[in-house]
Amino acid sequence: MNGRGYLPIALVLAALAAVPFFVASNATLNFIVFVLIIALTAQGWNLLGGVGGQSSFGHAAFFGTGAYASAILQARFGVNAWAALGLAIAFGAVVGWIIGYLSFRAGLRGSYFALVTLAFAEVLRILANAAGFTGGAAGLLLKLDIGFWNLQFSSRAAFLWLALGFVGIGLVLSQWIANSRFGAQLVAVRENEDAARALGVDVLAVKLKAITVSAALTAAAGCLYLQYFLYIDSQIAYGLWISVEALLAPMVGGRGLVLGPIIGAFTLHGLGEATKLLAGRVPGVDLMVYGAVLILVIAFAPGGVLGLLQKLGLRRKPVPAPQPEGVA
Considering the domain boundaries, does residue 157 fall inside one? Predict the structure, then answer.
């Protein structure tokens, strides 16, 4: 296996895993757990929208499916939390495949595909809000029962490590895809579908693989959200907020880059929290910061924070002086 790119992943994971040993603040640990859940959601989006070029406005469909599937299995059928987690991720992947098949088979791409995903997420939100087995508008509340087998922990550090484990899986998977033939095919489809098809790439199959894996990662994030807060409703699960979070983090951190989603998630939410501390609890101030950061990134750093750092690093590399002719 090509080991290229895995060292930065290991360093990031090790640094975050060490935080609970030095920080005892529950507020800080809560912040990191929430950002990790957002980062996992963004990793799902980045695989499809960043690497594959199929931008989605409806990743809430996968996030909500994972959360609701896990909640229903536990609250209605008494399924073990770990088993519910695995089944919910599978449900999310199936929903992703179905949406992808219907969309890509019809030849939708670009803004048309983005709007269709948004429509699917909204339909699922309405259904979840109306159906009885989902709890309707009241949502579903999981019973508080601390224990490893219930995926409930008395220590926030334990849940941080759990969420970090899932993010780590997402990072390693993303790096493996980037180094693989499948990753090359995804990039080819992103750059020019017709040219990729002419070279023998099965465009539909590649897109379906991408959206299925993307949906599975996003569904896992929905499950983690449920287990951490023990509550879900249609506005949380299928709300526009999570679709926006999913696409903002990669765009700010570096769209199509492996570490882009996690860097973008911490950048956005870190700036948001810092602004709240400085400006007080002014309603909507964090959204203003998100908007300002997004505008600045699009205008001055379209490659995101990581893209900008890479560009600056290349500029600082000394250019070797030309040698005189005849000098070996």
Answer: yes
Distance CA 50, CA 34 (A): 22
CA distances from 201 to 118, 182, 194, 195 (A): 28, 10, 10, 9
> Would 174 be classed as within a structural domain?
yes
Q: Which of 210, 217, 236, 220 is nearest to 69 (CA)?
A: 220
CA distances from 208 to 79, 93, 105, 117 (A): 29, 10, 10, 14
Say if 260 falls within a structural domain: no
CA distance 285 to 9: 32
Answer yes or no: is 249 within a domain: no
**288-305 confidence digits (pLDDT tens):** 888 888 888 888 888 898
Q: How far apart are CA 152 and CA 146, in angstroms?
A: 5
Count structural domains, the chain.
Answer: 1
Tell me, what's the pLDDT at 301?
A: 85
CA 4 to chain CA mean position, Å: 22
Structural domain that includes position 174: 6-240
The torsion angles phi and psi of 305, rounded to 5 degrees, stand at -60, -45
Task: State the chain's maximal CA–CA distance in angstroms.
Answer: 84
Look at phi and psi of residue 109 and say left if phi exceeds 0, alpha if psi is from -120 to 50, else beta: beta
The conformation of residue 152, written as its DSSP 8-state character, comes to: B
Q: Cα–Cα distance between 163 and 14 in angstroms, integer?
A: 13
Q: For the chain, first and last CA: distance in Å?
A: 37
pTM for the full predicted model:
0.93
- Measure the CA–CA gap between 319 and 312, rounded to whole angstroms: 14
What would the pLDDT profile of 69-114 be if each residue is shown by its tens digit? Answer: 999 999 999 999 999 999 999 999 999 999 999 999 999 999 999 9
